[in-house]
Write a structure and sequence with these properties.
Helix 1 packs across helix 2. The protein is 52% helix and 12% strand. The protein has two domains: 177 residues, Rossmann fold (3-Layer(aba) Sandwich), CATH 3.40.50; 119 residues, N-(1-d-carboxylethyl)-l-norvaline Dehydrogenase, domain 2 (Orthogonal Bundle), CATH 1.10.1040.10. The relative contact order is 0.10. It is an alpha/beta fold. It is built from 14 helices and eight strands.
Length: 313
């Protein structure tokens, strides 16, 4: 199994794929960026260069280094050629199990036997994606938070067949490129981050559809309330600091009845209510007005970089 990773292939040049390509190239790796659509590749390179300018303005990338970073990225519309010299492969295709399985089969047929094959999947287990492969032991999910070139957290989800050496190599790679890896010890749908995120989303949708609160005020409750604490600490540490002295054990005991009273009333549905498809867009239109999605993304990325600077200090 490879330990000295030099060349990385990014499969899929969409939002996540080109963000990975930027991150790997910025860290000094040679990157092969593949997509079946040459127009997607063209836009990907434009987005990478724009994002590098944003990182430069934030003081993270030296402007004089941008040309070199771009120069380490080669684009391909031929999958076999894009992986033939790769030591590590990061697949970022749409979240479709059949598509990912087909890609993994093609990748494994054409890449070196020592190469690690990772998926950016946000919900699917690698044991399913790697079904039918001769060697699933070199496969792992490496799930980033969008956009990976800015948000450092990344989830590593091995299958029971994944070699521990593979997990450790990927863990070290993530540290090398400046990410904050966590290891998910069991394959569960949605891993950790999306299970937390989706549980909040379900409750938020439920509260809006029941007329309890508006879409805009839900977003305020997070961005001006819980989110301010969460930018510094997770839920366990938040509640650990709720009871001083005593910590989280005291908090659970003191507020047990309150917690369980609310738990019993939380949403439990497992299919998105049809009304959500109308109510949420209408609520967001009232919240953001005529502001363009792309402009909001640019604003979001700049603000996240500012928050990260504060966290590092």
């Amino acid at each position: 199994m490879v330990r000295d990773i030099k060349t990385i292939s990014c499969i899929g040049a969409g939002t996540i794929g080109h963000s990975w390509a930027l991150l790997f190239s910025k860290s000094g790796f040679n990157v092969n960026l593949y997509d079946v659509d040459s127009d997607v590749l063209k836009r990907a390179l434009q987005n990478i260069e724009y994002n590098l300018q944003t990182l430069s303005e934030a003081g993270i990338v030296d402007r004089d280094c941008i040309e070199g970073i771009m120069g380490r990225i080669k684009v391909y519309t031929d999958l076999a050629k894009s992986v033939r010299d790769a030591d590590y492969i990061q697949e970022s295709a749409p979240e479709n199990l059949d598509l990912k399985k087909k890609l993994f089969i093609e990748i494994s047929k054409n890449c070196p036997v020592h190469a690690i094959i990772a998926s950016s999947s946000s919900t699917l287990p690698i044991s399913k994606i790697a079904e039918g492969l001769e060697d699933p032991s070199r496969c792992i999910v490496v799930h980033p938070i969008n956009p990976p070139h800015i948000i450092p957290l990344v989830e590593l989800i091995p299958s029971p067949k994944t070699l521990s050496e593979v997990t450790q190599t990927v863990y070290n790679l993530c540290l090398r490129i400046g990410m904050m890896p966590i290891i998910v010890r069991k394959e569960v749908p949605g891993y950790v981050v999306n299970r937390l995120q989706f549980s909040i989303l379900r409750e938020a949708i439920d509260l809006v559809l029941k007329g309890v609160v508006s879409v805009e005020d839900i977003d305020k409750a997070i961005s001006y309330g819980l989110g301010l604490r969460w930018a510094l600490m997770g839920p366990f540490l938040v509640f650990h600091l709720t009871s001083v002295p005593g910590g989280i054990a005291a908090t659970l005991s003191k507020y047990r009845e309150a917690f369980e009273y609310v738990f019993r009333d939380l949403a439990t549905w497992t299919e998105i209510p049809s009304e959500a498809y109308k109510a949420l867009p209408e609520g967001l239109k009232m919240e953001i007005g005529s502001r363009d999605q792309y402009e909001l993304i640019k604003w979001r990325d700049r603000k996240i970089l500012e928050i990260l600077k504060i966290k590092k200090s």
